[in-house]
Amino acid sequence: MQGLRQHPFRVTGRLFWVSGELIRAALDFLVRCAFRPESSRALWQQRAARRHLRIFRFEAEVSGAIPAHGLLVSNHLSYLDILVLAAITPAMFVAKREVRSWPVLGWFTQLAGTLFIDRERRMHVGPVNAEIQTALEHGALVVLFPEGTSSDGRTVLPFRSSLLEPATLPAHPLHVSCIEYVITDGDAQPGNSLNGVGGGILYHSPTDRFKVMVSYGYGIDAIRSHGRGANSFGLLVQLDLGRIHSETFRPTHPLQWRGWQQLFGN
Prior knowledge:
alpha/beta, Glycerol-3-phosphate (1)-acyltransferase, 8 helices, 8 strands, globular
């Protein structure tokens, strides 16, 4: 609310822009997805995510091979992570049950084919794992945020490993990704980390430009754990993700990135 009081026109303008993009996304779904296979929803989500990120002058750069199918395990910094990963490649997401009841956004996540998990009910994990397994068998890319909550990006939080059960099977590839946000230009100091960015992005200066860096890797160490339970498997994936995080996002200078491929931006 403080940001709204300080920058009422800026916030209101962006909210109208977001609303317009949501309406456009709903019409796009009606035309391209309503009477087509569910696989078309991931492409619809990708188009909508890219348009929304451009509202806030986001650019995305990627290091590593972008996965097309299998299970993708990522760190979690903000609700924007979903838009970022969806904009890079068509995917299906697993989210907490509460997201389904969010006004407007909950309805759009259902349209996108999101799988919802009730973390308070251990009995609900089995059916969700079965849905993940079915999606993987149909060639989908399923994205998990096993930390269970967002962090400040300084480290990888302990995993909730129960949803990694389908990944213990060697039939499906396992990928890991690390996300980092930085300010690249504008009134804010360039090079500053923007991890944890959320609603505050609505009142950033129009001159501010943001870059999200996504590093992909293949969970080789985790795949070698075939035959282990989900908990020990999850620990190995967490270590693998932490290794990529420390190696990729701690360069000598915050804007000296190597091996990056720019995907989209203004």
